[in-house]
Amino acid sequence: MERRKFLRDSAAAAVLGSLAGEKLIAEAVGATSSAPNQGSSERKAVHAHIDANLPRHIEKIQEYLRQPSISAEGTGIKECAEMTRRYLAEAGCKEAELIPSKGHPGVWGYLDAGTKKTLVVYWMYDVQPVNPAEWKTPPFAAQLVPEPRWGAQGRIIRARGAINTKGPERAFLNAVESIRAANGRLPVNLMFLCEGEEEMSSPHMPDFVAKYRDRLSKADGVIFPMCSQDPDGRATLFLGNKGIVYVELESHGGPQGGPTKAEIHSSLKAAVDSPVWRLVQALASFTDATGNKIRIAGLADNIRKPTAREEELVEALLKELDGPAQMKLYGLERWIDGVDYRTSLRRLLFETTCNIDGMWAGYTGPGGKTILPHKANAKLDFRLVPNQKAADVVPLLRKHLDAHGFSDIKINWSNGYDPSQTDPDSALVKAAQATYADYGVKAVTWPRIAGSAPFYLFTRELKLPLVIFGLGHGSGAHSVDEYLVIDADGPIKGLADVEKGYADFLFNFAR
Amino acid sequence: MERRKFLRDSAAAAVLGSLAGEKLIAEAVGATSSAPNQGSSERKAVHAHIDANLPRHIEKIQEYLRQPSISAEGTGIKECAEMTRRYLAEAGCKEAELIPSKGHPGVWGYLDAGTKKTLVVYWMYDVQPVNPAEWKTPPFAAQLVPEPRWGAQGRIIRARGAINTKGPERAFLNAVESIRAANGRLPVNLMFLCEGEEEMSSPHMPDFVAKYRDRLSKADGVIFPMCSQDPDGRATLFLGNKGIVYVELESHGGPQGGPTKAEIHSSLKAAVDSPVWRLVQALASFTDATGNKIRIAGLADNIRKPTAREEELVEALLKELDGPAQMKLYGLERWIDGVDYRTSLRRLLFETTCNIDGMWAGYTGPGGKTILPHKANAKLDFRLVPNQKAADVVPLLRKHLDAHGFSDIKINWSNGYDPSQTDPDSALVKAAQATYADYGVKAVTWPRIAGSAPFYLFTRELKLPLVIFGLGHGSGAHSVDEYLVIDADGPIKGLADVEKGYADFLFNFAR
């Protein structure tokens, strides 16, 4: 999921972390650090069971993290798929089966609680590759180590997958097991849909969703277990994400002119067309002179206006966010087109984009080399908002290129998916917000995130609301020394509260 | 000199080699391979002296080539400068002195023959770096080895500098010595202006020319000794070269928008300006949509129309050249804008250009990475024809950028020089053509070459005609196994004729 890919660099982390409130660290959070007592006796029993079994729960998380599952390499995938299936069976899923695919298998689980409501758990069991030499402790040792950053009693598990996402997922399952052990049954039915290719852009998730479509579509919502607290304790709740289409363009010498085989001497420009100029002119036709107004006909046709509810959320967000701090974080001296922060935030949330991620042609080394290159390339991404469709973008781009005389410019490849949106007033969102409130954790709700994730499979295809939910904190996804906080003295919730929070979320959702 | 830099790759070699006639290999050249007998007794005596002293002349060339003089590294430069000075003194220069500079020294020599006419010899004593491991024989061993490509008696000297250009230069000096030995005096006075930084873009040549300006400006022409025969035996005579201005542009986040410190996540494009889009739009403003018509105001203002004489030369050239073969050589499916070969050749010779040599921004690796880069760069070169001035280009470019709202786009650096032009009807050119004809060598005369060299120092600053002249053949400049042909059975002239040709050129020029 791209959300976690953001975390690979500071700018990216800012999208989730700081845009969401990392700059608010100085503010008091006003939270308590203990679990709420206002719950029912059912909840109390579950909480007590979690407290009593915490050492074993920690061990289960370590066990899961110690099983490598690097999808890009295939390392441990088979074993981790089977471990996941077994976990689901042990947690009470009568159905717990591998889903064969042409790639890494999926895992399906169904836990029938005999209740009215059903929650889908989206689950990824794969992780990013590692370079163990760079880690403080071996990435698949999953050591429980002290971490003073989180207080005198601070402890973390350091492991690949600790936060992204086997740690939170196993914590969720620990909570499920405690609910069953304490109360005999769950407040909701659970459908688990797990994949082992999330870090490879989920190529078979559409197949998995299709296979269980009839059953999934009868559910009431989807949770992606996560630990969503920032280091300051604040939680962020995104109600959707933009879609994305990523394309690579290529201009190459051919019947329309230019050298076809190799670069030639630049003095020949006088007699020979340039594939580089063609790419530049084609790209330039996509926007106005500022690069900010898209001129590709039809691209924005299906964008719906923000709803009144979304507008409310933006106004609330503006009270939480600090524009100048954001500018500093990104190294900006102004927002787009020189607009104010409110306008830039509205554009961030509600507008489509055409961005050049990279371009290259010819000689790029030091000094000068006099060549007329035979090819030029650019990578672009388009971010999509409701109700744009990813499938429309490449045909519109092709049509634009052809109409502007650039039919020779190839779209080497493309991929992407639709935007995803969850109703801010859905019971699922309310359950998440209520649970954060139960624990005194301030949750900042965004109408959507400007980044992208393939959650349209649930929200658009199955019409299900989806939340990324969880107390607690971790970081280092896609990086070194990835961790999940197990114990913390400050506003960050430790593992016991993380698991109690998942349980309470289920109770809240079932209400 | 860029002319030789062309030879580094096949596309480049084509500009000089094949555009000039390499594709004519199949045609009969109709040349004799022996020296002409139509000369005076003076010439006959010189030719006899050259024949009698050929082994010693070969040794002198080997001696010069065995002295390394790699300007980029400084290797042997001091020794080679002094050797060059000594050679000039031994050849009869009463004045033979080093010219100190902040870089490698120049060498000045004056040989006073008491004649009316004076010829300047432009001379470079430096060579390109070498990787000895790649050579068949050590690059500074200057071995005389058999080479069957040039016939049963074929022999070459293989060495760095063999063709570029210490081989032809020392051969020229051998001819000078033979004239003096045989006849007592030269038919022309000679001024030698030598540099040891040609392979570093001649940074101190303007100073050297300025230092001897009063004396140089009284000369009647300039020769750059070369062996100008293609493998098919045909010689090419370029009457000028285009000027060049090379610039590197940079678009970078700043007060006009965009991230200033590092790339940020591409989803932020909705709220942040893009330095890449700015570069694309700025570049696009330089030309029309084809990339072929320049829209930078003033750039073409000073271009003079081709003269009737130049038009004649183009028509003659067209009879020699083979458009379809050229297209194949460069890997083209059409000439610029789809024009015919005549039009493309006229544009090649008479028009200015704006070429993108390279550009780069952001992510250029495999697959996709979603970033909004903080900078983007492009390298461009402008080729200049008479009477454009190199000094005008950057100010016009700056003015254009500013006028189009791109005052933030920086010109990181630039360099270049003016075009150079020699009168096709000058006595110097006629002497060169007459000498080729004397030896039955077909010479193809170009109004100019589309490439660039800093010969404006002589032609524009001093109003002197300049020829790159010489019988014979060599290749491998800037590459491995560089060679000069010493003996050949075919249309290529061997060293004896090369030296006789230089002598006859001086006689022809003196007439």
What does this protein look like?
The structure is a homodimer of 511-residue chains. Chain A is α/β, with parallel strands linked by helices and 511 residues long. Chain A contains 15 helices and 20 strands. The first copy, chain A, has helices spanning 2-5, 10-16, 41-66, 77-90, 166-183, 205-211, 213-216, 275-284, 308-320, 323-330, 341-350, 390-403, 427-438, 456-459, 495-510, and strands at residues 95-99, 106-111, 118-124, 143-146, 155-158, 189-195, 221-225, 235-238, 240-252, 264-265, 353-362, 371-372, 375-384, 410-417, 420-421, 443-446, 449-452, 466-469, 474-475, 483-487. In chain A, strand 1 (95-99) and strand 2 form a beta hairpin. The first copy, chain A, is globular. The interface between A and B is large, with 95 and 95 residues.
The portion of residues assigned to helices of chain A is 25-40%
Number of helices of chain A: 15
Main sheet of chain A: which strands, in order across? 1-2-6-3-7-18
**Rough outline of chain A:** globular
Uncertain spans of chain A: 1-35
Biggest sheet descriptor of chain A? 6 strands, mixed
Counting DSSP E segments of at least 2 residues, the number of strands of chain A comes to 20
Distance between the termini of chain A: 30 Å
Q: Could you tell me the radius of gyration of chain A in angstroms?
A: 25 Å
What is the H level of CATH, i.e. the homologous superfamily of the largest domain in chain A? Answer: Zn peptidases
